[in-house]
Amino acid sequence: MAPVALAAAWLWARRAWGVILAVVLHVKGVVYALLLAIGSLQGGPLAQGGGDGLLGLWTVFVAGSAVSLVVLLGGLRARDAAETRDGSQTNGRGSSRAQGD
Questions:
Q1: How many beta carbons lie within 10 A of that of residue 73, not counting itself?
Q2: pLDDT in tens, 4-54
Q3: Is residue 43 part of a domain?
Q4: How many domains does the chain have?
Q5: In a domain, 37, yes or no
Q6: Facing residues of 90 across strands?
Q7: What is the DSSP string of 33-74?
Q8: What is the pLDDT of residue 89?
Q9: Which domain holds residue 55?
Q10: Nearest to 36 by CA among 23, 14, 52, 21
Q11: Per-residue b/e over 46-59, b at no fewer than 16 CB within 10 Å?
Q12: 28 or 80, greater pLDDT
């Protein structure tokens, strides 16, 4: 839970490391839940009948993590486009105009 809280705090503060950590955690969430879903289908106690009963949960986790990753990356693209349109560039700590450049 600590990496998630750290990524959230850094994203809130608009630090570059927050974006990096958030993307890594989202990708991990998608991959891990997908592997759990595959394992549920192949090796669960009800494998002959189609899973161990948790397949629905893992599917929800895969979809939720994938959607939140797309939203995160979409927000980054929108912010980058807005900064380019305004002519301001950030270095992870605020705009360069505010720092006297």
A1: 14
A2: 999 999 989 989 899 999 999 999 999 999 998 888 887 765 556 555 678
A3: yes
A4: 1
A5: yes
A6: 95
A7: HHHHHHHHHHHSTTGGGTSSS-HHHHHHHHHHHHHHHHHHHH
A8: 55
A9: 23-86
A10: 52
A11: eeeeebbeebeebb
A12: 28
